[in-house]
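Contributing: when you submit paired examples, paste them exactly as shown. First protein:
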Amino acid sequence: MSAITEWISPLPDKSLPALRIREELLRILQELPSVSQETLKHSKIGRAVMFLYKHPKESRPNKDLALKLINEWSRPIFGLTSNYKGMTREERQQRDLDQQMPQRRRLSQPEKVERSQEPDVFSAPSSSGGQTPRRDLEKQLTGEEKALRPGDPGFCARARVPMPSNKDYVVRPKWNVEGESSRSGYKKAISLLEKHKRRFAEERKLRRPQGAVKISIEGNRMPL
């Protein structure tokens, strides 16, 4: 892997190696099995592929191959699943066929919590602060990522962006709200509302003006 890094790295005059060499080596890298994080750090192959991906004079097919390699290597680092963005239509169909049986088995099991949408490792920077996934990915691929501890220079004691979780929660928590207490409170609220309605109706009757009273000439039946 270190030899491939030497061949695809820029020349002393900062120029790129031959196009045919870059194409063949990127194709060979894509045919290799998954590369561990330790291999990425020691061979520095991630830094070389990242350099080709960012180089303005690199060809578009080579940039696409480099992007696929970066995504493939970064998925295990960030604990993500397969990237549908870099898969062809046939690959997606085959993957769906392979996953039909496990999905049917999961339907017979207790309800699980839905996973959040899989983030893209090259998504735009978030406004919540902290380092963006792109910078974290570059540090992981180039071997510059080191965990800082309290007391180390550069350590900042503040909240960090949480990493995605691959866990499926199958145990549903017990319901801890008592139904009787809520129903009794509902009845009390209704009775209080009815009490106010009745009081307003009585006050309206008292405020209502009385009708005309017939006055008797004889003086009897007069309201006193």
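Second protein:
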Amino acid sequence: LYHIVINTDLVTYEEAAQLIGAEVIRRYKLDTPVRTATITGQRAAVF
């Protein structure tokens, strides 16, 4: 992060985007599959 902010000529835009994206994925645990709840015996709501 230091090089992205201070030494901007050392990190390309692509590298900066990859670093930021990887941190967002790690921080919000977006690399793990989402577990969905299974509802049995009920009809789906229609809106």
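If you have annotations for the second protein, write them as plain sentences, like these:
Residues 11 and 34 are 33 Å apart (CA to CA).
The helical segments are 2-5, 13-27.
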